[in-house]
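User: Quick sanity check before I run a bigger batch. Here is a single chain. Can you write out its predicted 3D structure?
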Amino acid sequence: MRQNKIQNERTNEKTNQRKLVNPTKKEWYWHVAQFGVGCLLLFFAVNVPVFAAGNVDTSQITGGFDAIYQVIAAIVSAIGSIFLLWGLFEWAQSLNTQDGGAQSIAFKRIGSGLVATLAPQIITVIRTGLPNS
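Assistant: Done. Predicted structure follows.
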């Protein structure tokens, strides 16, 4: 009985594989119809008009997002500082060994810690460098 169960599972796997690789004509038409409906929905979704007022005070919305941005920037900077210290301590320990791999891992950790620590400042430089539209 167990052997029959295993054989049934194998035949089911083969039929599932056959359907994926070599679909029948009916299945092919179904897939083409699904693709056509998806394309049609995307076509109409792109052409949806948006009626928005031109001169609206958005300071409340941008102020809220700026507050969230400041919290996330502080968290990323703190995690970057932790990585930086971890990398420095690991680098100091790797100086006592002859293993070059440990030193390279420590340098990678130091570099990632620097990037994460300076990420909020880098983002503000990129923001101010881009023209406002």
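The chain is about 80% helix and 0% strand.

User: Great, the batch can go ahead then.
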